[in-house]
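Observation: inputs received (chain + 2-OXO-4-methylpentanoic acid).
Thought: call the complex predictor directly.
Action: predict_structure
Action Input:
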Amino acid sequence: MKIAVLAGDGIGPEVTAQAVKALRAISANNGPQFEMAEAPIGDAAFNQHGDPLPPSTAEMAAKADAILFGAAGTYESDLRPAEQRGGHGLLRLRKQLDLYANFRPVFAFPELLGASSLKREAIEGVDLVVLRELTSDIYFGTPRGRGVENGQRHAWNTMRYTEAEVARVMRAGFEAARKRRRQLCSVDKANVLETSQLWREVAIEVARDYPDVELRHEYVDAVSMHLIRRPRDFDVIVTGNIFGDILSDAAAMLTGSIGMLPSASLNGEGVGLFEPVHGSAPDIAGKDLANPLASILSAALLLRHSLKLEAEAALMEKAVRQVLAEGYRTGDIMEEGATRLGTEAMGDAVAQAILKLKG
Ligand SMILES: NC(=O)C1=CN([C@@H]2O[C@H](COP(=O)(O)OP(=O)(O)OC[C@H]3O[C@@H](n4cnc5c(N)ncnc54)[C@H](O)[C@@H]3O)[C@@H](O)[C@H]2O)C=CC1
Ligand SMILES: CC(C)CC(=O)C(=O)O
Ligand SMILES: [Mg+2]
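Observation:
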């Protein structure tokens, strides 16, 4: 089983190294064997090869059984033209592999209720999924550009969706809801945007094939409030690329920290890409401060969805919970009485827990 490891920038390599450690622990003592090969992406790739997604990286990723991704981009490259931006390498990879369905499970670990900045009673029992459309919307729509008109600088992007793009992610949402609590909340801004009107029409049409799933529609601005106020009311949220990007960072706080939120980007057939929801966190990079659990939990999703190793995925998740239950914390989820660990030590703790659980 081939895993392409694209660690990228900032804390990307630090947290990805811990996920690799966890995968090696799964392989130990006659476990499944993984062929892991690294390739450059993001600023690291641009600085080395003049391209944030070198052809050799794209090719290796396409041929792998799964991709473990870290983070791409830095504040310096973010403001350059697109082809020189680290993050653009990731956007291109998602597009090239047609990874349209990005699942971001938001689970309030009972072990972490005291670490959240939110009240225990507000987040207890939270278990929802944000399904973000990942290959279209205003991030990819054309025309886009900048210019000068009447002496004024202008800039424009295009929010664009086709009905096929909406229908396929909507189906993924209904299928996911069917395996959970059978509630799908479609999030749009149909009171303002043409794309959202199409989004809502298609949602209603696709819903006819899923009479067993309850579909409701909510506006994105209201959902950003309801997510904090009554998060237990959500099962699966399906939404567009930009709304999903923003809502899932907000939802991350229900888990205690953005360092806890994993993700799976899938297209139903080919290779899947697995990455923590957070970015390259330049403010803490190189300091052994980053929480690697989002990356480790992403590796668990990789085992489950791309490699079909359910038992091993569950074991990795159990190891994470055990380490939390034993009171180990990185700084972002620190609470009174807990033992503070750095990135590496947290990775070691999870790897050891995996080995112990395997017996
Ligand atoms: N998927 C990707 O590759 C993404 C890349 N980015 C890029 O990352 C860079 C930084 O972006 P930001 O907006 O600051 O978002 P960010 O997610 O990197 O950081 C936001 C805040 O969360 C903290 N944080 C993030 N991950 C953490 C972890 N594992 N443990 C503890 N704390 C953590 C950071 O220290 C920072 O204070 C930018 O260049 C941006 O373009 C941003 C989001 C996603
Ligand atoms: C390059 C960005 C769109 C990455 C990001 O913010 C994300 O995937 O959540
Ligand atoms: Mg984001």
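Thought: report the result.
Final Answer: The pocket of magnesium ion (ligand 3) is lined by residues 245, 249 (CB under 6 Å). The chain has a mean pLDDT of 97.
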